[in-house]
Structures are given as structure tokens and as C-alpha cells.
Automatic annotation (TrEMBL):
Pfam families: GerE (PF00196), Response_reg (PF00072). PROSITE patterns: HTH_LUXR_2, RESPONSE_REGULATORY. InterPro entries: CheY-like_superfamily, NreC/VraR/RcsB-like_REC, Sig_transdc_resp-reg_C-effctor, Sig_transdc_resp-reg_receiver, Tscrpt_reg_LuxR_C, WalR-like. This is Two component transcriptional regulator, LuxR family. CDD domains: LuxR_C_like, REC_NarL-like. Keywords: DNA-binding, Phosphoprotein. The keyword Amino-acid biosynthesis does not apply. Transmembrane segments: none annotated. It comes from Deinococcus gobiensis (strain DSM 21396 / JCM 16679 / CGMCC 1.7299 / I-0). One of its GO terms (molecular function) is DNA binding. Residues 133-198 form the HTH luxR-type domain. The keyword Phosphoprotein applies. Coiled coil: none annotated. The modification 4-aspartylphosphate is found at D48.
Amino acid sequence: MDDHAVVRQGLRLFLGLDEHIEVVGEASNGEEALAEAGRLHPDVVVMDLMMPVMDGIAATRQLRRAHPDTEVIALTSTLEEHKVNGAIEAGAISYMLKDASSDTLADAIHAAARGEVRLHPEAAKRLVRDFRGGEMRESLTPKETIVLQLLARGHSNRDIAADQGVSEATVKTHVSRLLSKLGLDSRTQAALYALKHGVASLDGVEV
């Protein structure tokens, strides 16, 4: 979703080279993005942040509320702190710059479809520095702490389940509980909380 037709054409062209990615639609502004997401139900939306009519942050927030199974990748040309923070708080699972290589963006799309976080290195540093996650309301159990560490490393529920020898349903329960305890809204915020509070290191995050 981008207001520049040339950018959309370029994205469609090189993403179409990946046989595991199907580009099902495009939009030139935030309102169109919401309408297309409602019509097409994509697994992942690549969202520009600076668009007319409705910007990408507002569109991401509304899209995630209406279609929680659709992940959003913020793809933009800026690392302004209010944009980075705004996109993640709105529910974007990843934050990438438009100068990212086609392989990097394709990897981010595949990762988002699996529920994994990908962040531009500088965006990750700024988010760790500026993120204001809720204080721990209750102590996490040892298992929840492990799950939080694995989330911070970008692992999906399936990966965590395999690593810990439990079902994906059990992992979902752990994730739901730790988000509630920490007063957070998303996996990405949980990963940032883990980094900010020393539960995991920045080196462990996929960027």
C-alpha cells in the first residue's frame, strides 16, 4: 500500500519473483488499504506510513482491530521516532525501510506470515531506547519468561512450541498471559519490553 504508483509497481514486480508470495492487491491511500484488506483478507499487508486521505499508522491501527489475523509490515523511508513508535503501537509486526533489499523484504513478509518480528536495526535501537512498556504487574512464571525471550528473538508460536515440547495452543496461552501481566498489546511490544528490561539482548532480535 503506497501512494506512489511506481513504488507499488516495483514492489509487485520483485515480490512476484518469489514463488511463495502472491500479491493479491494494492492501494494508494489508507482508506483504500482498509477496503482492500477487508475484501481480500491477505495474510500480510505492506503499509507505507505517509499516504493521503488516511496515513499508514491510522490505517494500521484500524486494520489490526478489524482483521487481527492480518499482519502489517510498516515500509517507509523515515526513521523518525514518532513514526517508528506510532507504527509499532498501532500494531505493525515489523518496521522496514524502502531501501531494504528485495530479499530482506521478502524475508520480512514470510516472517510476518509466521507471526515473527523483523525490525530495521536502527528502528530496533530507537524502539528499545524509547519504548514505554507497562511495568510488570505480576511476576512471570519461568515458562512465560522463556516464551518472552523466544518472542524477543523473533520466534513464531510454532517454533516456540517445538523448542519447548508443548502444543501451539499452550504457547498461545503463555503469550496471552504474559501480555496481560505486562500490560502490552502485541508480540512486537513484548519483544521490545524484553529487550528494554534485559530479559533478552538486542543481538537476539531478527533485523
